[in-house]
Amino acid sequence: MKISTNWLKDFVTLAPPFARIAERLTLAGLEVKKCETLTQPSDTLFEIEITSNRPDWLSHWGVAREIAAVENLSLKNPVLDPETGRVPPPGWKIHIKDAAGCPYYTGVLIEGITEFKTPDFIVNRLLACAIRSINLVVDITNYVLLEVGQPLHAFDADLIQGKEIQVRKPKQGEKFTVINGAQIELRPDDLVIADSDRAVALAGVMGGKDSEINERTRNVFLESAFFNPGRVRKTSRAHQLSSESSYRFERRVDPEAVDVGRSRAVALIQKYGKPRHISAVIKAGEKPQLEVKSIHLRFEEVTQVLGVEVKPSQIALILTRLGLHVKQHTSGGSAGETAEHSRSPSTLNKERGSWTVGIPSFRPDLTRPIDLVEEIARIYGFENIPETLPARPPLSVGENPRLSLERKIRYFLSGAGLSEAVTFSLVSDEGLDPEKDLQHAVRIVNPLQHGLHWMRPTFVTSLLNVIRKNVNAGADSVQIFEIANIYGAPAGGKHPVEERTCAIALYGKKAVQSWLDAARAVTFYDLKGYVEAVLTSAGCQERCVAKIEKSYFAGQGAEEIRVWQTPVAFLGEVSGELLKKWDLKEPVFYAEISLEKLMEHAQKIPAFKEWPRYPAIERDLSLVVKESVKSGDLMREIQGMGEGLIREVSLFDLFRGKRVPEGCKNLAFRVVYQSPERTLVSEDVQKVHEKIAQSLVQKYQVSFQGR
What share of residues in the chain are helix, strand, coil (percent, to 5)? Predict the structure, then answer.
């Protein structure tokens, strides 16, 4: 946005060099990108960069207010029309039918304009700000917009049907011709200004062709209103229409400026247009109020944040110069004693204490004490705040347990011959089931790349892409892992969550570790070995295995590993359908480990167990059981029946064949008996062993191949 220094002089006293003022504004947060000097007419322009939270800077008056605060100058107000002693226009009415879109609307009827030439100073100032002159009334509305920041719209009053203004949503199928001649079809959530017959303006965005001011216009209805910023933004984007008005309405105009802007425009039209009659203002609705109208600020808060002691009198002076209403509570006076400050710095109290700061309508960005501290720092000058080391000695910070676990997993998997992959968080829906995999996934409304609409709910497709790329490059063995976040959107309207996860994928031949190893294809049990080793290294000892189904796994081979009944990992063989999509000829084995759940159930400090003093006795159990019986359940049953004498139970063989009945399997367990108090004899062990066997027969209907 361009700001004219000649125009600024209407509100503050400025003197060259203007480059110094530009530098001070930039240091205070209002960036002046460039200073430009004009010769005809003589002027200096500031090209400023305005942040989205400061719409009050979108006017010369707003920038002048900032200069007054930075330079400690007096701020003048624009000349306004008193708007008194007039009568409402007969027969004219305003109806707001969509208060959410327009809470406050005002208008004034100006009749019998007799002068039409725009004064040279208005033309020159508009041209300096890259706006061409059109006619007197339109030039004045543009002038007021740039001067006080309030967009206005002028209608040819003779073209308003029924002397009625309606602020409403469009009718179904309603069309509208904008001022540039283009016809658009209005959307249901647009907001229009209409007369009794048709829409005459797109509220806050652009006027209509049917009611525009032209060279024959003598009677004007002048609009000044507050429109909902979100509604204006959606309408402007949907119809690809942008204007100086929509740019300001989108960022929220000052509700108080609705009346100021209208009065300023009326004063200029009366002075330069010489109308025969001006009506009283007709209004509808109420001005929106700020949610936070005052903030309590303590002196200690300012000192603690800035690290430098700013005098209390200077704090109050800075806040007052910014247009805030300051009431100081002194620390040494009686209860309730205050000192008020409203643009009268000479009365500011110099004692320490606190302040109640009233927030004006043009500063909705100020909602917390820290916001006021930032304002104090800006005007005091960041360059005046010295760089100092913190007085507090550094504290020793322990290592993050999650990062420690991740590093341990990386070292182990890398040492086992796996390579770490890094993939994008955004994925396509290729290979993912819409109901099973994407039902609770996070969808990106405006993706950075076409097709990547999802935050990954799993790593499986990402790692398949890595495998395919390496296979296409000639690799016959790809063994990879990745540690990163997966994302989900829980049911119930909660915010999306991210979960730290380790994923492992194996393809092709197993890496040969030494000359003793024979080259072979990787299997499901290689993957399971890696997963169980990771869980063991994290301290998860008590775990069980359950069968699960995943859309991207083949058959019934998928397993879920649980720790204290909490699922912490799952693994399986990727389905042939996915392998075809990725053009892979060999099986792929895939696993995911939830590091979040692993951290919850891991034994952070392993408990010390005394070395056994007495010898152990081993016994084997070879059982024939139904396929539905889980080995983990059998191991827990054996351990539980051991009367405290069983140190370890392990499965060392699984057999299915001719000697085993159909629908059954042969499992062989090794049971290690050991007592921490005495040497066991064979008779003691045999009694317990027989008891375990009887329990398994009764509970699981097992038969024995041998004991």
Answer: 30, 25, 45
* CA–CA distance, 157 with 111 (Å, rounded to integer): 8
Dihedral (Cα; 305, 306, 309, 312), 10-degree rounding: -70
Sign, Cα dihedral of 268, 273, 279, 282: negative
Spatial separation of the C-alpha atoms in residues 184 and 206, rounded to whole Å: 12
CATH code assigned to 93-285: 3.50.40.10
3-state SS, residue 369: helix
Using an 8 Å Cβ cutoff, are 163 and 111 in contact?
Answer: no
How would residue 391 be classed by pLDDT, with cut points 50, 70 and 90?
A: low
Question: In 3D, which of 504, 528, 508, 527 has the Cα closest to residue 519?
Answer: 508
Class of domain 2-71: alpha beta
173's CB contacts (< 8 A; 6+ apart) are 185
Q: Do domains 2-71 and 294-383 have the same CATH topology?
A: yes
Rounded CA gap, 543 and 535, in Å? 9
Digit-coded pLDDT (tens) for 555-595 = 766 888 888 778 899 999 999 999 999 999 999 999 999 99
Separation CA 225–CA 414 (nearest Å):
66
| Whether the model pTM is above 0.85 | no
Average pLDDT score over residue span 20-35: 94
The pLDDT tens digits of the residues spanning 211-237 come to 999 989 999 999 999 999 999 999 999
- Evaluate whether 578 touches 431 at the Cβ level (below 8 Å): yes
Q: Quick check: 71 pLDDT over 70?
A: yes
CA distance 599 to 470: 33
Interhelix angle 136-148/120-128, nearest 10 degrees: 60
Helical spans, DSSP H, in 37-104: 60-71
Token pair of 605 as six digits: 């400090």
Higher pLDDT, 70 or 700: 70
CATH homologous superfamily of domain 401-601? Bira Bifunctional Protein; Domain 2 (3.30.930.10)
